[in-house]
Amino acid sequence: MKIEVWSDVVCPWCYIGKRRLQHALARFGHAGEVEVTWRSFQLDPSHRRGDNQPTTEMLSGKYGVPPAQAAQMQERVTAIAAAEGLTYHLDRSLTANTFDAHRLTHFAASRDLADGIHERLFQAALTDGEAVDDTETLVRIGTGAGLPADEVRKVLDGDAYADEVRDDIATARALGANGVPFFVFDRTYGISGAQPIEVFLATLEKAAS
């Protein structure tokens, strides 16, 4: 079985969805026959690289609410993440253009390291408050996941895997995804959003049968 997961590494719900899928797979009898492929998606492709506004401020402006209300929104998501074993510090998270982070994920996938790099990118953005559009940050994250530093830098300094990122986003649109996380099982069954573990498990059983 092949599961394709469209997500963005600055998306708190995407990390929750990743963890819930993992919990479901741990309860699935045929988990060893499942291949998970990470696909790219940008929540805000127009965001300027290096414009790393605190996410609380961004949410306040985007939804037209006071900063305190935006912080409360983040606190609610943080509590939900904690129930899945994740530690968020969204009070120090930063907005970022994630195109290069997605290119790095595709490079990692070519070395069978996509899941590890995706995990580290989520942690950097949502736990550590790092700017995941910063080249030096991405080089450090890449090497921490087992990628050679010189090769990571070469990828980031050029346009390698840019077409793959764009293709992922176009495919998501073609499949009807307007947001993430978005999970597709054998291009037959889909789950939109970070649904409860039971929903993932039921879909795994349905796809397997």
Explain what this protein looks like in three dimensions.
The chain has 209 residues and is an alpha+beta fold. It has a single domain, classed as Glutaredoxin, CATH 3.40.30.10. Helix content is 53%, strand content 10%. It is built from nine helices and four strands. A four-stranded mixed beta sheet has the order 2-1-3-4, sandwiched between helices. Strand 3 (182-185) and strand 4 (189-192) form a beta hairpin. The longest helix has 17 residues, at 67-83. The radius of gyration is 17 Å and the shape is globular.
Looking at this protein, list some descriptive labels:
209 residues, 9 helices
Q: For the report, how would you describe the main beta sheet?
A: 4 strands, mixed
Query: What is the spatial order of strands in the main beta sheet?
Result: 2-1-3-4
Which stretches of 5+ consecutive residues score pLDDT under 50?
none
Averaged pLDDT: 97
Strand segment count: 4
Q: Provide the succession of SSEs.
A: EHEHHHHHHHEEH
Morphology: globular
**Fraction of residues in helices?**
40-55%
State the helix count: 9
Measured distance between first and last alpha carbons: 11 Å
Helix/strand-derived category reads alpha+beta
| Name given to the CATH architecture | 3-Layer(aba) Sandwich
Question: How many separate domains?
Answer: 1
| CATH H-level homologous superfamily name | Glutaredoxin
The proportion of strand residues reads: 5-15%
Reported by name, the CATH topology is: Glutaredoxin
Radius of gyration computed on alpha carbons: 17 Å
CATH class categorisation: Alpha Beta
